Hints:
Blueprint: H1 5-18, E1 28-34, E2 43-49, E3 64-71, E4 74-82, E5 95-102, E6 111-117, E7 121-130, E8 133-143
Antiparallel strand pairs: 1-2, 2-3, 3-4, 5-6, 6-7, 7-8
Amino acid sequence: xxxxxxxxxxxxxxxxxxxxxxxxxxxxxxxxxxxxxxxxxxxxxxxxxxxxxxxxxxxxxxxxxxxxxxxxxxxxxxxxxxxxxxxxxxxxxxxxxxxxxxxxxxxxxxxxxxxxxxxxxxxxxxxxxxxxxxxxxxxxxxxxx
Length: 145
């Protein structure tokens, strides 16, 4: 099923407002609508990232990158970075994206893989989404310290 642009924009707008960025117009980079657990309810998984998308640049006020899931009206951020204020330390933010949706543990339910990339590192994390609960099953990363 293809998620509609207004619906995914509203999910992103809600997440940004929850993280102090309600004045920022969201830029959704990926959107997937899928029944993750086979219960007949379609979940929406989205990623959204600041337009400049450069993880080698210092973060600025208004920068963000995240992956979120909406299920039954509830919105949860699986992973992300938000900069509602001008950073004082010049962090190099991660960029987050949907790495995949698959059954990683063989239980018949789909998990969401969140991929992230940073200045000298990248990684993936697997999340199980069940009603009212998000579980990080495992993650792996590579790169510098």
